[in-house]
Write a structure and sequence with these properties.
This protein is an alpha/beta fold. The protein has helices at about 20-30, 45-50, 70-75, 85-100, 190-200, 225-230, 235-240, 260-275, 280-285, 295-310, 315-320, 385-390, 400-405, 435-460, 465-480, 510-525, 535, and strands spanning about 10-15, 35-40, 55-60, 85, 105, 110-120, 125-130, 135-140, 165, 180-185, 205-210, 215, 330-335, 345-350, 355-360, 360-365, 370, 375-380, 395, 425, 430-435, 505. Bound molecules: flavin-adenine dinucleotide (FAD) and ligand NA7. Flavin-adenine dinucleotide binds near residues 18, 111 and 388.
């Protein structure tokens, strides 16, 4: 057994979102470790601290977008609408942090610039933007998979004289009420913003690159008694969520669209359209929408028909109608396509009419029109999953950086650990589960806590071998290739960032199967984290 070297902390947690908050609580309050959390933002909340754009909300339904670990708090915390919006989620996370008195152990306004593993002492040195550095035996990175912003480099971007913002860096003092607003991007964020901005802006110009499939969210106030009813069923609800695929709180369909007739498909799609929710439409209707081209086309055709029925101007309807498979993260909104019937909303297809440059007054498109704007909003998404890792100088064994280690593509074992970086554990690292994320975060944080318990008991570092990691990458790739998702370009495969290599970034096998793998690894005494040499010591 190696000697334990003195360190400033036992563990450092990076990031104060859902992941970092729970991890700090578990390590400090359950294992009794000395833990320090660092967060570059000036507040806790992660995603929900940063994303304050009008319309920002979760598209996981309210009961399931929260922690499940605290039965008492589940009974205390209320919600009033089918989906919780950003201010409410932030309020919820603030309340969790206060409930467990975690604030004092999170150092805000502090970016982690580098993480370096010292092989002699088997400790990590964490260098901070404040100029300080601290040491710890364990590092848990909960950096967020949708947190490193993607800002396209459009000519003239610096010349714009109005306000130019990315949705994930929305300033508190910016109101779009009565303003001429332009938005680039129509993903989950862009469509949420568009629905909200159409009500506030005097004129809204939407610069759309790809047309999107969006189904109704079904948002609205909860029915009287609904919250109490849900609260009385929370134990069975979480049981169901943990044992499902996408973990969105509904039972995934077991019926194939390819096995029923057209009338039945129509009935099921219409019922899902009336119920609302994007993941429900893709996974609650039939079990083959994401894997069978025929089933996918049936769902896509249904949505395309709805667009034609909703949007009055035929040319606008044509531009809004997607032609590619329905195989990106499913979107849902309240009356998304309807906003294009409003006089103050204009759609510009930048596929057919590209942006030439940003000017001091607005956006110039290839047809020679200068779209004059007071505010230009980039809803252009994120350098997802590994983006924030590559912004930190992370060095493991032999001084190898994570950037070099992930030269081909970002990889890991279980989305949790990567070879050559001992005692470094990731929450939602590459090839973690693609689900409603809070239940997956909980599964990972609880597993990391068990790993650290094991390391504490044995005094040895935990790490995975390259072979273990490669095998997991292969598993993720095999599952992804079985789906239609690789057929469209999106952040799920790193396809949204110019120059980023397309690769599998998620385990698409679902939460139940993922938890099954975690349970197996635990049952085997966490041998997969022994990297060979640990076996005899344990
Ligand atoms: P985050 O909440 O992203 O927190 C990571 C934190 O790490 C950030 O605060 C960041 O500042 C900090 N950080 C990063 N690098 C450093 C550094 N070097 N030093 C210090 N601090 C650092 N998921 C769902 O399941 N359902 C939804 O409906 C849903 N809606 C979403 C809507 C939007 C607009 C966005 C952007 C994301 C949404 N997500 C949704 C995904 C969401 O990110 C996760 O559900 C969850 O909030 C992730 O929590 P996290 O703690 O892993 O990461
Ligand atoms: P997304 O889903 O990556 O969407 C980004 C949007 O921005 C999408 O419509 C892109 O078009 C568009 N985009 C990206 N780069 C450009 C450039 N250079 N020019 C024009 N348009 C561009 O990000 P979101 O923030 O909406 O959602 C990410 C996740 O966060 C989401 O799933 C939720 O979980 C929350 P494209 O479709 O690629 O043609």
């Amino acid at each position: 057994m190696s000697t334990t070297h003195p360190t400033d902390y036992d563990a450092v947690v990076v990031g104060a979102g859902f992941g970092g908050i729970y991890q700090l609580h578990k390590l400090r309050d359950e294992l009794g470790l000395r833990v320090r959390g660092f967060e570059k933002g000036s507040g806790i909340g992660g995603t929900w601290f940063w994303n304050r754009y009008p319309g920002a909300m979760s598209d996981t339904e309210s009961p399931y977008y929260r922690y499940s670990f605290d039965d008492e708090f589940l009974q205390e915390w209320e919600w009033s609408r089918k989906y919780i919006d950003q201010p409410d989620i932030l309020r919820y996370l603030e309340a969790v942090v206060d409930r467990y008195d975690l604030r004092k152990d999170f150092q805000l306004n502090t970016e982690v610039n580098s993480l370096a593993f010292d092989e002699a002492t088997e400790t990590w040195t964490v260098s901070l933007s404040t100029g300080e550095s601290v040491t710890a035996r364990y590092v848990v990175t909960a950096l967020g998979l949708l947190a490193a912003t993607n800002m396209p480099d459009i000519p003239g971007i610096d010349t714009f004289e109005g306000r130019l913002v990315h949705t994930a860096e929305w300033p508190d003092d910016l109101s779009i009420e009565g303003k001429r607003v332009g938005v680039i991007g129509t993903g989950s964020t862009g469509t949420q913003f568009i629905v909200a901005a159409a009500k506030q802006a005097s004129h809204l110009t939407v610069f759309q690159r790809s047309a999107q499939y969006s189904v109704p969210s079904g948002n609205g106030p909860v029915e009287p008694g609904e919250v109490d009813e849900v609260k009385s069923r929370f134990p069975e609800i979480w049981e169901q969520v943990r044992n499902s695929g996408v973990a969105f709180g509904f039972q995934e369909s077991t019926v194939a669209a390819t096995e029923v007739d057209e009338a039945e498909r129509e009935r099921v799609f219409q019922a899902a359209w009336d119920r609302g929710n994007g993941f429900y439409f893709m996974f609650g209707t039939f079990n083959d929408i994401a894997v069978s081209a025929e089933a996918n086309e049936a769902a896509a055709a249904f949505i395309r028909r709805k667009i034609g029925e909703i949007v009055k101007d035929p040319e606008t309807a044509r531009l809004l109608t997607p032609t590619l498979p329905y195989a990106k993260r499913p979107l849902c909104n309240h009356n998304y396509y309807h906003v294009y019937n409003q006089d103050n909303v204009e759609l510009v297809s930048i596929k057919e009419n590209p942006i030439v440059e940003i000017t001091p007054n607005g956006v110039l498109t290839a047809d020679g029109v200068e779209h004059e704007l007071d505010v230009l909003v980039f809803a252009t998404g994120f350098d997802a999953v590994d983006g924030n890792y590559r912004r930190i100088d992370i060095r493991g064994r032999g001084g190898v950086s994570v950037d070099e280690h992930w030269k081909e593509a970002p990889t890991s074992y279980l989305g949790l650990a990567t070879a050559g970086f001992p005692n470094m554990f990731m929450v939602l690292g590459p090839n973690g589960p693609f689900t409603n994320l809070v239940p997956s975060i909980e599964a990972q944080v609880e597993f990391i806590t068990k790993l650290i318990t094991k390391a504490e008991q044995t005094g040895r570092v935990l790490e995975v071998t390259q072979e273990t990691e490669d095998a997991w990458t292969e598993t993720c790739k095999t599952i992804a290739d079985f789906t239609l998702f690789p057929k469209t370009d999106s952040w799920i495969f790193g396809a949204n960032i110019p120059g980023k290599k397309h690769s599998v970034l998620f385990y698409l096998g679902g939460l139940a199967a993922y938890r099954g793998v975690l349970a197996e690894v635990e049952a085997n005494g966490f041998d997969a984290f022994n990297a060979g040499e640990f076996v005899e010591a344990a």
